[in-house]
Write a structure and sequence with these properties.
The complex is a heterodimer of chains A (294) and B (234). By secondary structure, chain A is an all-alpha fold. Chain A has a single domain (2-86, 93-285), classed as ABC transporter involved in vitamin B12 uptake, BtuC (Orthogonal Bundle). Chain A has helices at 2-30, 37-54, 59-82, 95-115, 140-162, 164-174, 176-181, 186-212, 219-234, 239-259, 265-279; strands at residues 130-133, 136-139. A two-stranded antiparallel ribbon of chain A has the order 1-2. In chain A, helix 6 crosses helix 8. Chain A is globular. Chain B has a 6-stranded mixed beta sheet, sandwiched between helices. A 4-stranded antiparallel beta sheet of chain B has the order 2-1-4-5, with helices on one face. Chain B is globular. Chain B has helices at 40-48, 70-76, 93-100, 109-119, 121-125, 136-148, 166-181, 193-199, 217-222, 224-231; strands spanning 2-11, 14-24, 29-34, 55-60, 63-64, 78-81, 154-158, 185-189, 202-207, 210-216. Chain B has one domain: Rossmann fold (3-Layer(aba) Sandwich), CATH 3.40.50.300. Helices cover 38% and strands 26% of the residues of chain B. Classes of the chains: A mainly alpha (294), B alpha/beta (234). The A-B interface holds A 89, 164, 167-168, 170-171, 174-175, 177-187, 292 and B 12, 48-50, 69-71, 74-75, 79-80, 82, 86, 88-91, 95, 98-100, 102-103, 146, 150. Chain B: Keywords: Amino-acid transport, ATP-binding, Nucleotide-binding, Transport. Chain B: One of its GO terms (molecular function) is ATP binding.
Chain lengths: 294, 234
């Protein structure tokens, strides 16, 4: 029973981690909270529903389509909601926050319009396939979610640590001026960051659709808030922090539902975060100096 | 090599540069002196494209480069070691060096990184350490080494001796002379006017956004206005 719940928790947690990674990348490079990330994630989920349930096409095409569509949404977000506000004199530092909230409302209403307000089931061929190991039931979907999340995290970590573009992104995150005098086209890195973050949100959207078998236009908001809570927990802009924070939130939510009262699910998750932040205000992996985050 | 004509740069409504004209000849060390707030750093930032001039023209190797971005200017051969060194503190020493060669596509980068580390043994010793953990002098060496890895034709150094112990300052000035001997032109901004003029070929003195004196380094060392304002009495 405990093991089963741990597996559920890790599955959920790895999805949270992917959502939070999108948040943390954008925060790390641009120093802003992208409030539209949750809605881009929701669009990814809807693309998954359309491709697999409505059109009956295989899952990998759903992933591909979600990556492309959410990547394009990310690009448009950067062009329309972020870039016009950047580097202008007299623009409040809260302006990008407000403009991304605007984008999130637009996207939510758009999805109401396009897909309807109700819940959409996420059907796929192997939703019911499960294994029995002793007394534990594991669904193939869970394994798939976990494997995809882990691969995504490994690829992202490797990309950031070892590749030239990844290093340029880290340099830009640390200091945009320094990166630019070292020859980094920071405008391009910013676009790349928002596009990658959005595409990861899109992938997470499909994973959530598969995990909960339900997709609706409101799902972006709660996921967005959780992603935000996770990066505060893990340390703003910190990649490892987003992964660890996602797993912690996923596990604590699942265990509360299993052994406590499911009504407290969200509450306990956020109480955990409050307690950790009281003990470590900079987040689990965050640095003490705020200047280093930019 | 670098010709700047009547550059005017603003911070909002405040005019920081009020028509700067200067040129840097190939193969020389040129120094830019002046008190705090005279506009030296603003001039440097304008040259590398971190600030856009409102008026005026910047020519590099005969080509108009006014208004280009810093990464474009680096590709043309202008590198800046900024004031405060701007080490990437969360990246290792070796990663900092690799970032210096970011725009290069040739296959001699590893060889050059190795060469630079031979030249600055302390960087080799600490190559896996995070840049932020180095001392001030080591960070300055790293910043200069990193800029050299871009293979610049013109190297801009903004206050390289700031905050360093006298012995290390002497090292830095020795390094600057070596850079020139290796064929890289240098534009040097310094508070340490005497040392700067000793290694420079010629220099400019700035005051409140304008160039007020221009001359050969040896003449500036004797110029009473320079002596009084920047060199002090011996």
């Amino acid at each position: 029973m405990l093991l089963e719940q741990l597996i559920n928790g890790i599955t959920l947690g790895s999805i949270y981690a992917i959502v939070a990674l999108g948040f943390t990348l954008v925060f790390g490079v641009l120093g802003i909270i992208n409030m539209a990330h949750g809605e881009i994630f929701m669009f990814g989920a809807f693309i998954g529903v359309i491709i697999t349930s409505t059109l009956g096409l295989p899952l990998w095409i759903a992933f591909l389509a979600a990556i492309i569509v959410t990547g394009i949404l990310g690009y448009m977000l950067e062009r329309v909601a972020l870039r016009p506000l950047r580097g202008k004199q007299g623009v409040s530092h809260l302006a990008p926050l407000i403009s991304t909230i605007g984008a999130s409302i637009l996207l939510e209403n758009l999805s109401h319009h396009l897909f309807g307000a109700g819940n959409h089931p996420f059907r796929n061929a192997f939703a019911e396939i499960s294994f029995q190991i002793g007394s534990i039931t594991i669904y193939l979907v869970q394994i798939l979610i976990f494997v995809i999340s882990v691969i995504l995290m490994i690829v992202l970590s490797y990309w950031l640590l070892k590749t030239k573009a990844g290093k340029a992104l880290r340099a830009t995150a640390e200091n945009i001026e320094t990166a630019s005098i070292l020859g980094v086209n920071t405008k391009r890195i910013i676009i790349l960051t928002v596009v990658i973050a959005s595409a990861m949100g899109g992938i997470a959207g499909i994973l959530v659709g598969m995990a909960f078998n339900s997709v609706n236009p409101q799902m972006g908001l709660s996921m967005g808030l959780k992603g935000l809570a996770i990066i505060i927990l893990g340390g703003m802009g910190n990649v490892r922090g987003a992964m660890a924070g996602g797993l912690i939130l996923g596990l604590s939510e699942t265990l509360i539902v299993a052994y406590g009262d499911s009504g407290y699910r969200d509450a306990v998750a956020f109480i955990t975060i409050i307690v950790i932040l009281l003990l470590r205000p900079q987040g689990l992996f965050g640095q003490k100096t705020t200047a280093a985050g930019r | 090599m670098l010709n700047i004509t009547n550059i005017e740069t603003f911070y909002g409504k405040i005019q920081a540069l009020k028509g700067i004209t200067l040129n840097v000849e190939q193969g020389k060390i040129v120094t830019l002196l002046g008190a705090n707030g005279a506009g030296k750093t603003t001039t440097m930032k304008t040259i590398v494209g971190l600030l856009k001039p409102q008026n005026g023209k910047i020519e590099f190797l005969g080509e108009n480069v006014t208004g280009l971005r810093p990464d474009q200017l680096l590709r043309k051969g202008i590198a800046l070691v900024p004031e405060g060194r701007a080490i990437l503190g969360s990246m290792t020493v070796i990663e900092n060096l690799e970032m210096g060669a970011y725009h290069r596509k040739d296959n001699e980068i590893d060889k050059d990184v190795e060469k630079v580390m031979m030249h600055f043994p302390i960087l080799k010793e600490r190559k896996e350490q995070l840049g932020g953990t180095l001392s001030g002098g080591q960070q300055q060496m790293l910043a200069i080494a990193r800029a050299l890895l871009s293979r610049p034709k013109l190297l801009l150094l903004d206050e390289p001796s700031m905050g360093l112990a006298p012995l290390i300052v002497a090292d830095i000035f020795k390094i600057i002379r070596e850079i020139k001997d290796n064929g890289t032109t240098v534009l040097l901004v310094e508070q340490n006017a005497r040392q700067a003029l000793k290694i420079a070929d010629y220099g400019y003195v700035m005051e409140t956004g304008k160039i007020i004196i221009k001359g050969k380094a040896s003449d500036l060392l004797k110029d009473p206005r320079v002596v009084e304002a920047y060199l002090g009495k011996k």
